[in-house]
Design brief:
single chain, 8-stranded mixed beta sheet, alpha/beta
Length: 421
């Protein structure tokens, strides 16, 4: 039996959950359900495959925890129109075969809708399985095929994303490197650091380097790609410095990003570093690094808007195993699914929910706008955030807090259609 029992009837945890940063640990061979009496109304069923354990898993595990806390509070308030949301979490450990097997489990178990919080290498197998079966799936954060153009032969009718493609982030990074280049002389040297996951390598070889070269940076650039299992980032940091890099873009989950930044500074790198602030906000704040420029994918919990207070309150009430600031992605997916279920009514079918998401589905509540700076709007041909405004923040030594680095950068996301120069 798992030591991490669901706090609200209708939430199930499967396999292994082992999270860093004060999270609880649990091991279970099978799903466990609450001993408390289940609500009498029949439930909606949601399946979640997440990278809950393994290196750099805490980012994805926190997304899953955000979804869990969101539906804990929904169920505590009576569910969706009186029906609880039964959430089944499975740990894919970042393994593609396990993620694909999780998808099949959801398909065979008549799960209404699914989501995936995991590294890019697990997306293809999971996505192929759920799209073949017509299971409406909502992902968070970075969007890959088949929810974005260029990610496959076509957009899948059943696959959606409450985020944007990696190329959108890269466009913001390139804009920042343009600013840096003005003080670096002709043809400055760039480096790119991340894991050796296929998505990261593609982001470097097909997106980042061709674009900065087009903007006048030295040809080639330097790639420091480390395995997920890496614990010592200092050799990669020294190699980056040895390459002559004057600015570094780090693109990987928060654990990896923090390790790279610390290793680069410890090795003596003084130049600007760009990265994404998608989780671990307190840890990035503790660096107090004015030359670390962070692209903010969601809002900051420190802004303390009403939606942030809801998340903080729910995190306390339902004993979240991640900091409130790390729950935002999962919370957003919960908001999307909840609206879909409310629109669908009960009983809801996969076909009906898929049709709702394709029929100009919009999430434009104030909470959503405060989380991501705009609304989510899907059509039959757009299953992701096509237009996104990104804030960039860095540390102010004077104010002792993050401050905006210029105005927000609005990007029209091309999906995974790579630029040609």
């Amino acid at each position: 039996m798992s030591h991490l029992k669901p706090l609200i009837p209708g939430v199930r945890w499967c396999k292994t959950l082992l999270l860093a940063g004060g999270f609880a640990a649990a091991v279970a061979a099978l799903c466990t359900t609450s001993a408390a009496a289940q609500p009498k109304a029949a439930p909606y069923r949601l399946g979640v495959s997440a990278m809950l354990t393994g290196p750099v898993s805490s980012f994805y595990a926190a997304q899953a925890e955000g979804l869990r806390v969101f539906f804990d509070q929904v169920n505590a308030a009576g569910g969706v129109d009186g029906h609880p949301v039964d959430v089944e979490f499975r740990d894919n450990r970042g393994d593609p075969a396990t993620a694909a097997a999780d998808a099949q489990t959801f398909i065979d178990g008549n799960t209404l809708t699914a989501t995936l919080f995991s590294a890019s290498n697990t997306v293809p197998g999971f996505a192929q399985a759920v799209t073949r079966a017509g299971v409406p799936t909502v992902n968070a954060s970075w969007c890959y095929g088949p929810s974005v153009p260029g990610g496959g032969p076509k957009i899948a009718k059943s696959y959606f994303c409450a985020g944007f493609s990696p190329l959108a982030n890269v466009l913001v990074f390139v804009g920042l490197f343009d600013k840096f280049a003005k003080t670096m002389g002709p043809h400055p040297h760039a480096a790119y650091a991340g894991t050796d996951a296929p998505g990261n390598v593609v982001a470097f070889t097909k997106m980042f380097i061709p674009m900065v070269e087009h903007h006048g940076w030295e040809k080639g650039g330097y790639l420091a790609a480390v395995p997920f299992s890496t614990t010592d980032y200092s050799p990669a940091a020294r190699a980056i410095i040895g390459s002559g890099a004057q600015a570094v873009n780090v693109y990987c989950p928060a654990d990896c990003t923090l390790q790279f930044v610390r290793a680069l500074r410890a090795a003596g790198f003084k130049g600007p570093i760009t990265a994404v602030l998608a989780s671990s906000e307190p840890a990035f704040r503790a660096l107090k690094d004015p030359e670390l420029y962070l692209v903010v994918n969601t809002s900051l919990i420190a802004e303390n808007k009403p939606v942030h207070q809801k998340i903080v309150d729910a995190a306390k009430r339902f004993h979240a195993r991640a900091s409130a600031g790390d729950l935002l992605d999962g919370w957003l997916v919960g908001m999307v699914i909840e609206k879909g279920l409310k629109t669908c009514g009960f009983p809801c079918t996969r076909e009906k929910l898929m049709a709702i998401f394709n029929d100009n589905f919009t999430l434009d509540s104030q909470d959503a706008i405060d989380l991501i700076g705009g609304k989510i709007s899907w059509t039959p041909s757009v299953h992701y955030l096509k237009v996104k405004a990104f804030r960039v923040v860095h540390w102010s030594t004077e104010k002792q807090q993050f401050v905006d680095f210029g105005a927000p950068i609005t990007v029209e996301d091309p999906g995974l259609v790579f630029p040609k120069f």
